[in-house]
Structures are given as C-alpha cells and as structure tokens.
C-alpha cells in the first residue's frame, strides 16, 4: 500500500480501499480481512465527522499524517477502525465498515462466537474490529510498516462495476452524503439503516 494513495481526501480514498487487506497480529495468531465496505468522513467540513468541531485529544489521530489507524469506542460498546487519509494537519479518515475474513477464521470465530456465520464475522464496524482483535491499544498505529502488528496492504483488484455508493449508515447529520462505498451483492456488507434522528441535509 502506497502512502500517496492515502494522502488524498477521504471520499476519494474510500472506494479504493475496497479489496485492500487489514491484518492484525497477536500472541493468539493473525487475522486478515479483505475490506468490502467503507465510509468517508471529511473532518471539519463534515457535520458527521468526529473532527467537525476541531481537534481534541480523542480525535487527534484523524488530523494526520495519512496511513495511521484511528480507533474509537462507539456507544461505549464497540471499537471502530478508521484509516487516516489526506494532508497532515487536516482531519480526514475512512471508517472500515465490513469485510471478508481471508486468514485466521478460526481465531475470528472464537472472538465473535462459534455459531456466527462466515459472512457475518466482520459485518459492521464493531464486528470487524472484534474479529480482527482491534482495540484502543492500536489507536495511532502506522499501517504501512512491514511486520507491524496491524497493517494495511493491497489485495485483489476490485472491478469498478462492483463498487456502489450510497448514504452513510446510522448518522444523524449529513447522512445523505453519498460517502458509503461497498461491493454490490457481497454477503459481508452490512445492511443500510437510517438514523431515526436523521434530517435532510445538503449534499457533498
């Protein structure tokens, strides 16, 4: 994976991350997941972004440089992983929403539950991190180092015809921005849900 590819706006990077592989090594083994769904968040220009109101200790990693992992807790329950993109000093990140486990499925299943079907192991951002073993300790990790405990690499090429865009899932602000990207017909992609607090907003 080339850092130059990531050093662009999130909405440009997000569809190109489809097919890329996020891997996490631990003492229990390695799990690798091919990304099938992403969402772009454009920092201070995006009302739905954690960085919309500026830099804080929580969102500091979002402000760059590109290639790092921004990990946050969602609703006090689940960890969510974001690939930092764009220019150093300007917040921009891509949320990884879903993927297909291609290595370490047994370990991913132990983390997620023995009865969880394969397509559901990493479906949804919280499940993705649980299957991969991503937690707060990985916040700020640089993803492009050879041999790193958590890494991002190029995977199989994805035909452009399979990539679809749509509104983001579960956000109440700027929910109708077409910044969600996913592989059409892939069973690992999460279901679209409109937030009950969502209101119409200007497109981007």
Alpha plus pi helix count: 4
Strand content: 25-35%
Low-confidence stretches: none
* Topology order in helix (H) and strand (E) letters: HHEEEEEHHEEE
Question: What average pLDDT do the residues reach?
Answer: 93
Q: Output the structural class.
A: alpha+beta
The helix content, as a percent range, equals 10-25%
Largest sheet: 8 strands, antiparallel
Total count of strands: 8
Q: How far apart lie the N and C ends?
A: 27 Å
Measured on Cα atoms, how large is the radius of gyration?
16 Å
User: Which outline best applies?
Assistant: globular
Please provide a written account of the structure:
By secondary structure, the protein is α+β, with helices and mostly antiparallel strands. The chain is 13% helix and 27% strand. The chain contains four helices and eight strands. It has helices spanning 3-6, 10-16, 105-112, 125-132; strands spanning 21-26, 29-41, 69-74, 78-84, 93-103, 150-153, 163-166, 180-183. Strands 1, 2, 3, 4, 5, 6, 7 and 8 form an eight-stranded antiparallel beta sheet that branches. The mean pLDDT is 93.
């Amino acid at each position: 994976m080339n850092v130059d590819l990531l050093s662009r706006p999130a909405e440009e990077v997000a569809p190109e991350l489809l097919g890329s592989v996020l891997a996490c090594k631990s003492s229990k083994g390695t799990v690798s997941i091919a990304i099938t769904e992403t969402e772009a968040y454009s920092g201070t220009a995006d009302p739905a972004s954690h960085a919309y109101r500026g830099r804080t200790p929580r969102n500091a990693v979002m402000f760059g440089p590109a290639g790092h992992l921004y990990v946050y807790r969602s609703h006090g329950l689940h960890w969510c992983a974001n690939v930092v993109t764009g220019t150093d000093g300007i917040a921009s990140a891509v949320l990884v929403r879903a993927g297909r486990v291609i290595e370490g499925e047994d370990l991913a299943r132990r983390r997620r539950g023995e009865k969880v079907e394969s397509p559901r192991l990493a479906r949804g951002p919280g499940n993705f991190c649980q299957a991969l073993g991503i937690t707060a300790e990985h916040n700020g990790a640089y993803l492009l180092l050879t041999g790193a405990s958590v890494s991002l690499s190029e995977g199989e090429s994805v035909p452009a015809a399979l990539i679809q865009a749509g509104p983001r899932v579960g956000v109440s602000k700027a929910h109708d921005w077409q910044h969600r990207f996913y592989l059409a017909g892939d069973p690992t992609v999460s279901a679209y849900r409109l937030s009950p607090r969502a209101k119409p907003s200007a497109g981007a």
